[in-house]
Amino acid sequence: MRLRTFLIAAVFVGVFVFLTSRQNSPVRTFLEDRGPGWSGPTVAHSAGLGADETNNIEIYKAAKDSVVYITSTVYQRDFFFGVQEVQGLGSGFLINADGQILTNYHVISGSSDVEVTLPDQTRYKARVLNRDRSHDLALIQIDPKKKLSAFLRLGDSDALQVGQKVLAIGNPFGLAGTLTTGIVSSLHRKIQSEDRGDLEDMIQTDAAINSGNSGGPLLDSQGNVIGINTAIYGPSGGNIGIGFAMPINRAKLMLDDFRSGKRPASTAIGVTTLSISGDWTQTLRFPSDGLLITQVRPGSPASRAGLRGPTQRIRVGNYIVPVGGDLVVAVDGKKVEEENAIARAITRKHAGETLDLTVWRDGRNVDVKVILPAQGDDVL
User: Fold this and answer.
1) Fewer CB within 10 Å, N side or C side of the chain?
2) Residue 214 among the catalytic residues
3) Angle CA 321–325–327, to nearest 5
4) pLDDT tens-place string over residues 63-86
């Protein structure tokens, strides 16, 4: 009996010694020191915003209440000569507290009913104050019940540089208040449109622009409007990273014309030109680079001014070139250095004013004055 009691006691003592000795074992130390199976803070925190993100957010908050949704109604004849209602969608933006809105001409073109929806979902009928078809611009007016506190500042598009950040706000596919960002991809682009003619001096951007963005603002990093989103490139009509905006300085000229009662000049003066430079200048034996007139439309302002078109065609390299016409070497006293020199000069003028051209003709410089027509006047 005593032996049995002794053995039981010995077992208890052995177990106690074994358990207390495990506190210093390597396995115990490893398990306790390892801690949780992840690294980092024990409480999750959201990542801080970068400077560029903060800038985007601030600009959007400041500008979103100034961007409006425009719907226009056009009545067209269908195949069976019935009247069909077609509704167009676009964007625009407020430029003052009185309810004046800038947008694209094609957003409201041909419409019998233009309606503007503000971000707070209030709706107003709008009337058209001024149109500039050749630059795809329009100024419309709503009559709000109270002064509007949200409107945008107009910046300076002449100071733009390729690579600077831009932000576009609009209503693509009816998705109101959509923000996209990008950069200025290029400047002074010329794009062709079947229904609007050539659009000169455009800003190219990779900020996503889609159907419904037309007429909305293109902003710089200070929140100033530097362009009006106008066109997209691509056969499907969707965004592929190439969009175009009309420079805001062109719109500022239209606003000045409206306030002064003047009519803007049309860029359609009746000539077609071909830029001549480099080896072609030497091959054609011109004294300097310039714009070779390849067509003069009869009865046009250019024809009435006495500008001359080609008399023959010759091969230059792989091209057939119409020659024998005038070479424009200066516009308003400034040497021609750009393909759109004539169009850019006209954008600063009004109907009835004179465009002064210096042309190389018969071995000498000749000054020609073209009286500019008003937009909307027919040019044959």
Assistant:
1) N
2) yes
3) 90
4) 999 999 999 875 444 544 444 445
